[in-house]
Amino acid sequence: MLYHDFSQFMAAHIQSPDTRCVLALSGGVDSRVLLHLLARYVRDNHCDAMAVHVHHGLSASADLWVERCRQWCAEAALPFQVEYIQLDTQGKGLEAAARQARYQALQQYVGEGDLLLTGQHRDDQLETFLLALKRGSGPKGLSGMAASMSFHQGWLIRPLLHRSRAEIEAYAHAHQLSWVDDESNQDTRFDRNFIRHEIMPVLLARWPHFPQAVQRSAELCASQEALLDELLQARYQAALQPDQSLSIRCLLECSDAARAQILRMWFHQFGHQMPSRAQLDNISHQVLQAKADANPRCRIGHAEVRRFGDALHYVPVYVDISDWRCPININHPVELPDGLGTLTLTERVVLTDRSTEKQAVFGLNQCCLSVPLQVIFNPEGLVASPVGRKGHHKLKKLFQEYRIPSWQRRRMPILISGQQVIAVAGLFVDEHFSGSDYELIWGTTI
């Protein structure tokens, strides 16, 4: 019966003969059963499939789990791949960090139209629902996990979502399957494990059908959330700008409730971490309604929502490189910090075709070599005279006039001699140094 339901579920989601099925194989009983089901389905239907195990390095048994998964895949005649990851727990708990890193590692295996299979079941749905309830989530959070959802270029599917843990374990025993047990699943310091071991047994003893009721509630919440999105789609599209920012004017025309939902739609569409209610209130009342010349921001995980001009932008929290500086010489590329590429000062090459290169090029005259040059990123206190402008202007004012967002102003390389600005890469050359003898090439874009 379980294989029959699995086969129907897969047939409903495989849209092309080229669809690849990628199993997230942890080695636990859920994914172990999925491996058994998928291997049989592949034999019956000749579809493309593989399994990927993500090695978190959190358990002393992690290397053993890799070998067990490799052996099971060999027996099932399915390709097997291991992804080794390191967790970044800054700003989040261990469970959340592991989940995020795991899905990031799995993304590279999911091409257009491919399916990522994960082993969550009905008991997991109950745990997720209770965790969302504990956090005070609204309909979106209480929707829990969907049986299928878009993921990277394909889809994430959960074929076992309507099956209980007991049913899955019964299948494993019936087919004499072995699996690994993660000792951390017994640690009730983790909220999910506390619910699983301390709360769920009490609930199920009193109300045996509680998981089915939670599943219905989760589906109703998902339906209500989908309806909200449908009704607000026109307003959302009107607010969404070509650069993926949101129009402040459009947002301010909405009611508080509609504005909050549009913001959630924005976060969801681009895969950003969903804000809490307090963060939504901060965005709505502090960031949106700040003065036009203010620099408000709302931190959400490793990113910020910031205002620039008439729009809200979602930007990473960048490393502060204000104090970074480096000498630069002719034909010696400088490696810029924090992934900003290279900056090169070179003799001009005539008729060079750079149509396919991702770089910004500016011409300089010989005066630029009369003194030692440095590259910096801190514009504070500096002035310049861009070509075509009269007089000296503070870089702060020039950045405003060139409409450079505040978070990018300390990420644009500044070529200086002493306190004299020679050029701001990607933006302008000072009129005293403009020419055609040399080229300043920034091998990236901001």
Description:
The protein is an alpha+beta fold. The chain has 3 domains: 2-215, 3-Layer(aba) Sandwich (Rossmann fold); 240-316, Up-down Bundle (Chorismate Mutase Domain, subunit A), CATH 1.20.59; 325-442, no CATH class. Helix content is 38%, strand content 20%. A hairpin with a 2-residue loop joins strand 9 and strand 10 (311-316).
Number of strands: 21
Terminus-to-terminus distance: 55 Å
Q: Structural class given helices, strands, pairing?
A: alpha+beta
> Taking Cα atoms only, what radius of gyration do you get, to the nearest Å?
28 Å
Number of helices: 13
Mean pLDDT: 88
Major sheet details? 6 strands, mixed
The number of domains is 3
Strand order of the largest sheet: 3-2-1-4-6-5
